[in-house]
Amino acid sequence: MLKVAVGSSNPAKVHAVKEAFGRDAEIIEIKASSGVSEQPFSDEETVEGASNRARNCLGESDAQIGIGLEGGVVQTKYGLFLCNWGALADREGNLFIAGGARVALPAPIAKRLLSGEELGPVMDEYTKKEGIRKKEGAIGIFTNGRITRQEMFSHIMDMLIGQYEFRKVEKKQ
């Protein structure tokens, strides 16, 4: 059975990985370091965090595949947007990367992040709920529940696994 390590214990991320691999894999949770700030502030930093988590999963386990899923924000001329990235690392040294949905953050939220706060606690305060990042996530709040954090990461997982599978097919040709 394929063993997959996910670099998080966040339920939204873990469920996305379990859903993507189905019953064909044993999924283990590892508190893998991202090596980036608690609040990644660019695509590059968010990709780096996901990649580091994926590789660190392999270094901290006997899994054949390591998964890193990372949420961040990115400044654009249209405002501050959520960004989400994933990485899949394997024992052959391959690293596959995929990005997810984006949505603009309301100005009051963006202002707090730009002043140095982290999105998770800001969202808890904004919604007057606890643990938003482990449930619907900011994307769930700002899309009125049409896209949840788990669904967003599930989409990323499908892209990662698809690239991984394609690589195997490509090598056989």
UniProtKB/TrEMBL annotation:
EC number annotated for this UniProt entry: 3.6.1.73
Positions that bind Mg(2+): D62
InterPro entries: ITPase-like_fam (IPR029001), Non_canon_purine_NTPase (IPR002786), NTPase/PRRC1 (IPR026533), YjjX_NTPase (IPR050299)
EC class of the enzyme, as a word: hydrolase
Reactions catalysed: ITP + H2O = IDP + phosphate + H(+); XTP + H2O = XDP + phosphate + H(+)
Positions bound to substrate: S8, S9, N10, P11, A12, K13, D62, A63
Annotated TM spans: none
Record key words, sorted: Hydrolase, Magnesium, Manganese, Metal-binding, Nucleotide metabolism, Nucleotide-binding
Domain of life: Bacteria
Cofactors that this protein relies on: Mn(2+); Mg(2+)
Pfam families, per the entry: NTPase_I-T
Bound cofactor: record note: Binds 1 divalent metal cation per subunit; can use either Mg(2+) or Mn(2+).
Domain Non-canonical purine NTP phosphatase/PRRC1: 7-157
Quaternary structure, from the entry: Homodimer.
Job description of the protein: Phosphatase that hydrolyzes non-canonical purine nucleotides such as XTP and ITP to their respective diphosphate derivatives. Probably excludes non-canonical purines from DNA/RNA precursor pool, thus preventing their incorporation into DNA/RNA and avoiding chromosomal lesions.
Similarity section: Belongs to the YjjX NTPase family.
Protein name: Probable inosine/xanthosine triphosphatase
Organism: Peribacillus glennii
